Amino acid sequence: MANPILVRAQTAHGVTTVACLVKHPMDSGFVKKAGKLIPPHYIEVIEFTHNGKTVLTGFWGPAVSRNPFFSFAFKGGKKGDTVGIAWVDNKGERAAVSAKIA
Amino acid sequence: MRGAAVVLLALGIGFAHAAPAPDLAAAKVAVAAADAAAGRARAAGDQWMPTLAALKAAHVALARGDAAAAVTAATHARHLALLSLRQAAEQKRLWRNEVPRQ
Amino acid sequence: MRRWLLLLLALAAPVAAAAAPNPAADRAAFQGWFRHLFPQLPLAKYVDGPYNFSASERAQWQQIMELPPYGFAVDHGKALFDARFPDGAGYASCFPHGGIGIAQDYPQFDPKTGRVVTLPIAINRCRVAHGLPKLKLTTGDLADIDAYMVRTSRGHKIDVVVPDTKPALAAYEAGKEYFYSRRGQLNFSCASCHLQYPGHRVRGDTLAPALGITASFPIYRSKWGNMGTLVRRFIGCNKNIRSAPDKPDSLAYRDLEYFLTAMSNGLPIAGPGARP
Question: In degrees rounded to 5, what are phi and psi of residue C170?
Fold first, then answer.
């Protein structure tokens, strides 16, 4: 896959911690290379689902770093449940991945 | 009295020589001297980045025909190169002082 | 007359012995110095570099290491490493054990060319031997291949051999002189920071000890946003002290890496690493 997402989801004491590493250039549009601006290319929306139900929506933008690492926790996840991650960037590119909670 | 007159005369000559702006020929000589000193510093393995910056400024000023700026930058570059040469020569001996001993 | 000669010989012998390069004695003194600085820190921990000295940085690092940022580079490096050259051979054919778990033996001294060969340079040599152009030694694909090869060597004890030959010892000694010589407008040597002030701060960064510093390379540096080899860090260090950097494949950097890695013999490979 061109834009892989690495996920790790673990549950302990009723709280599920999801960590992910998203491969994306996240060009802000303000950086120059050889005198020319690199056009903006960044994730606009990233959505985390638990068994198909949205648990977190992130409105990212040009200020987020390249290959961002993101981690959050939610209540109610069980072992073996599915956690899904999907993003869409300003060029309309998309990537999605799902993982089982360990 | 005669001594004082000679000193005044000498000072006067000094001022008279300093007053006119350097011509392009003098600037070329100064830049060539700076180039030679920087070359020696490179050969000694201890080139300073400010030397290169001043050298570049001198070349740019010379190409622009600004003899005064070229002489100023070239003199600065030559002095920095001479300092780095001095540092390299001293370190040939002094580096052993930094080695930990048992 | 004869007595004079004997006396001269007796005087000359210890001087000659002290001046001759002795990597084993140097390593004992080098590692002894760090033991003196940090008596509590076990030797193998030095490969964690700056994270030994800052609890908050260590906590962040441990969180980062759950999903290491160099992961993509290692995967990409593995794909490149496994790909065939146009002539059918692969990188594995150029290295002992098929290139797996060998990073601890580099840099090596090549008696044929009389030069030190680091792992990235060895990868480029392999490419040239199979008719491919050299890759950039600082970052990009080469750093990714390097990252994969180092990843397969993790935990192996660094074992850099300095053969007891004149050219090898001369390269070692040149690296040692480079490490301890002050240079640049700010008049710093490598040792000024990484030997004398490890654990202290230079502005926002914590200085890593020179011992074990090579074990984590190549690194994903957050400041760079991608992978970089040890030579890339050398160039950055030189610029920081206002010293014009050498070429990535220069003898100076090869010899420096040779000396520096030989000083860390016995420490485990911990690369690829993640640094701020």
Answer: -65, -40
Closest by Cβ to B102, choosing from C29, C183, C185: C29
Tell me the C-alpha distance between A43 and A40, whole Å: 10
Helix (H) or strand (E) holding C14: helix C2-19
Of B87, B96, B100, the CB nearest to C187: B87
**A8 neighbors C66 (Cβ within 8 angstroms):** yes
In this structure, how many other beta carbons lie within 10 angstroms of the beta carbon of residue C223? Answer: 10
Look at chain C and count its residues. 276
Q: What is the mean pLDDT of residues C237-247?
A: 94
pLDDT tens digits along C189-233 = 999 999 999 999 988 889 999 999 999 999 999 888 889 999 999
Q: Return the residue in C62, C66, C75, C139 with the most chain A beta carbons within 10 A, the one to mutate for interface testing.
A: C66
CB C118 within 8 A of CB C257: yes
- Domain A5-100, CATH homologous superfamily name and number: Immunoglobulins (2.60.40.10)
Partner residue opposite C182 with nearest CB, options B45, B91, B100 = B91
For residue B99 the two structure tokens come to 């080695």
pLDDT tens column, A24-56: 989 999 989 889 999 999 999 999 999 999 999
What domains appear along chain C, each with residue ranges and CATH number?
23-276 (1.10.760.10)
State the chains in contact with C (3 or more Cβ–Cβ pairs under 8 Å).
A, B
Touching C: B residues 18-57, CB under 8 Å:
42, 45-52
- Do the Cβ atoms of C211 and C29 come closer than 8 Å? no
Helix (H, G, I), strand (E, B) or coil at A97: strand
Report CB contact under 8 Å: B94, C182.
yes
Residue ranges of E strands in chain A? 5-12, 15-22, 32-33, 36-37, 43-50, 53-59, 69-75, 82-89, 94-100
Cβ pairs bridging A and C (under 8 Å): 27
Return all residues near C7 (Cβ < 8 A) that are at least 6 apart: none
Which residues of chain C lie closer than 8 angstroms to A69, CB-CB?
64, 67, 69
C190 a catalytic residue? no
Question: Quick one: which of C273, C253, C10 has its CA closest to C116?
Answer: C253
Q: Find all residues with CB under 8 Å of B65, minimum gap 6, and list them.
A: B24
Looking at this predicted complex, what is its ipTM?
0.81
- Whether chains B and A touch (3+ CB pairs under 8 A) is answered by no
